[in-house]
């Protein structure tokens, strides 16, 4: 469990690195959009080959479909509730909605990050060591996510202490999520592990389509498609190395 927690922390720590880059480096919105597109491509690859593919191999189509649907609906419902509290543009470098509640921003960050970290814990269950492709996917996608959101929160008047504190809290939650993912599934039946993998995949896919890709395209335009494919290809090649 400690191994899973450590790798969950490593994946989550990328959020703090991205936040620092957003706060202290002069990064244009176009570059942020391109980086987000690349990170989305990396996550698409990890979802397809490391989560969905493994879930299907373990338990077949019924468990896969049930898990995907449950993960997607859970994220959709949580995201809808957070949007109503002002967290709609939490990933945007333009800043969250005017008057967005701090709790909504924190909950939104947790909603986006916990499925990814749980997926890290699941890969430790599978092979006794972390799945490199999933870890890299989470790490590389977390940097542009927090970079963009931190630029936006700074533009909307949030303090540096608040922004870094938010990402430190999410990193801590990511560490716990990875450990819980491992502890809950360490001796579980194959079908339970498969449904959990598919659940994480459904939540991540919904997050990508609903929040990450739209922001990337808004700020970087048509080139996002190309860098998304590049991220997908890089992650796939890493998973086969």
Q: Short description, anyone?
A:
This protein is mainly α and 241 residues long. The protein has helices spanning 2-24, 29-84, 102-127, 132-155, 160-185, 190-220, 223-240.
Care to describe what's here?
The chain has one domain. Helix content is about 85%, strand content about 0%. The relative contact order is 0.26. The longest helix is centred in the N-terminal third of the chain and has 56 residues. The chain is an all-alpha fold. The chain is built from seven helices and no strands. α1 packs parallel to α4.
Which key terms come to mind for this protein?
241 residues, mainly alpha, 85% helix, 0% strand
Shape: globular
Low-confidence stretches: none
Proportion of beta-strand residues:
under 5%
Which structural category do the helix and sheet elements fall into? mainly alpha
Major β-sheet, in short?
A: none
Q: Count of DSSP E strands?
A: 0
Continuous helix count = 7
Secondary-structure element order, N to C: HHHHHHH
Terminal CA distance reads: 26 Å
Total domain units: 1
* CA radius of gyration: 17 Å
Mean pLDDT over the residues: 81
Secondary structure topology:
Blueprint: H1 2-24, H2 29-84, H3 102-127, H4 132-155, H5 160-185, H6 190-220, H7 223-240
Helix pairs in contact: 1-3, 1-4, 1-5, 2-3, 2-4, 2-6, 2-7, 3-4, 3-5, 3-6, 4-7
């Amino acid at each position: 469990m400690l191994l899973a927690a450590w790798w969950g922390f490593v994946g989550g720590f990328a959020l703090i690195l991205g936040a620092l880059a957003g706060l202290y480096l002069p990064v244009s919105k176009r570059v942020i959009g391109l980086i987000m597109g690349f990170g989305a491509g990396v996550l698409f690859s990890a979802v397809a080959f490391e989560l969905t593919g493994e879930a299907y191999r373990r338990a077949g189509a019924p468990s896969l479909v049930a898990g995907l649907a449950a993960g997607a609906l859970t994220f959709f419902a949580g995201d809808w509730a957070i949007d109503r509290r002002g967290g709609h543009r939490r990933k945007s470098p333009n800043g969250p909605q005017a008057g967005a509640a701090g709790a909504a921003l924190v909950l939104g960050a947790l909603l986006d990050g916990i499925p990814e970290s749980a997926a890290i814990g699941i890969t430790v269950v599978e092979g006794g060591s972390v799945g490199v492709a999933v870890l890299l996917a989470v790490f590389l996608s977390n940097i542009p996510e927090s970079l963009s959101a931190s630029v936006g929160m700074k533009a909307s008047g949030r303090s540096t202490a608040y922004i870094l504190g938010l990402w430190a809290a999410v990193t801590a939650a990511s560490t716990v999520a990875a450990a819980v993912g491992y502890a809950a599934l360490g001796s579980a039946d194959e079908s339970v592990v498969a449904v959990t993998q598919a659940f994480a995949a459904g939540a991540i896919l919904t997050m990508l389509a609903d929040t990450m890709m739209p922001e990337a395209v808004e700020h970087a335009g048509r080139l996002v498609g190309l860098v998304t494919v590049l991220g997908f290809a890089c992650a796939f090649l890493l998973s086969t190395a």
